[in-house]
Amino acid sequence: MKTVIFNNNDALFKFSQKEVRDHLRGNLAESAFDEISQMLELISNNRDETIFNLDDNHYFGYVALELMGSGKGIVVCKNCDETYDAGQVKMSAIGYGKSPFDSKQKQKGGFSLVGKRKNRSMFGGQILKCSEGHTLISMETWRT
Description:
The chain has 144 residues and is α+β, with helices and mostly antiparallel strands. It has one domain (3-143). It has helices spanning 17-26, 33-45, 59-69, and strands spanning 3-7, 11-16, 49-53, 74-77, 82-85, 90-95, 123-129, 135-143. The strands form two sheets. A five-stranded mixed beta sheet has the order 3-1-2-4-5. The chain is globular and about 45 Å long. 22% of the residues are buried.
């Protein structure tokens, strides 16, 4: 099987080239058009396997999260040396949630002595853990 591998400090993700190509083509209208086009070109030029590392291609971390969240791929946890299918790992929200639209938290208003509202930043994202509780990947997906 032709594969795309994503490697970070905690895990090694494996996806079929077809799954990755289909996913990337579906996201071509997004703001990361250049990065997506470059990844599609790399995948098309390699015959058997394409490897992305977090240090070289940070954007593919988001792709890996999205693919795993949709039930595609497998991941090898480097901490427990176990292989998990996408359905065996747990995805959770971090910070204020997966999306700013999902956020249930209300921004608390703080007033200074001069009566101005304090500017408070919020962020959110997703974390993926193996069944042993080891972090496989954690990505911030939004910030205000």
